[in-house]
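protien #1 (seq + structre)
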Amino acid sequence: QVQLVESGGGLVQPGGSLRLSCVASGDIFSGYAVSWYLQAPGKRELVARVTGGGSTDYADSVKGRFTISRDNPKNTVYLQMNSLKPEDTAVYYCNARKRGAPVDYWGQGTQVTVSS
């Protein structure tokens, strides 16, 4: 099993940057696909995903602005968020899923607020 802890959220002005972190414990993280989701009123959307093999995918709304990466020795996945917009405001959750597993894992979320 995996336990996930997100951090790095906060209040930032439009155009600013944040780096979110998702730190895993309880299993070897490198074998998992890890995703970032956002939750805001009326929506829960996939933002970015990195597979165990290192391939990445992004929502169209964040392409060119966000970058997902992983540091396997630290059991950590990052979401670098640049050129932030007010519409990025949401709680961001980390999700981890191992291929073939019947369940996945979620962290507690970290709040990102983009406002002037």
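ok now protien #2
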Amino acid sequence: QVQVVESGGGLVQAGGSLRLSCAASGRTFSFYRMGWFRQSPGKERESVAAISASGGSTSYADSVRGRFTISRDNAKNTVYLQMNNLKPEDTAVYYCNAVSVSNWRTPIGSWGPGTQVTVSS
């Protein structure tokens, strides 16, 4: 299966921006639909965004649509999440994973370590 390592998190003020990266291993990365998830203490894991294997189709949670953009570079085995106009409620550990072709909210691979995003007000 695809193995991933997330990076790019940090501490930013509300209204700021961050770009997260998800570096994937394996030569079959380009065959997988990929997604971003996030989780805060005491909350359920939330699906944030997903992108098709080719990069031609994307999905977003209502809470981030218009602010976040998912993209991928298959030549670099990397998927990105550009986060703009960040809000305190975006604070969470962000994870990436391969997701089901039929349901972008369903992870199918192994979890990486995640990267912490903290947004202050």
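The two ends are 39 Å apart (CA to CA).
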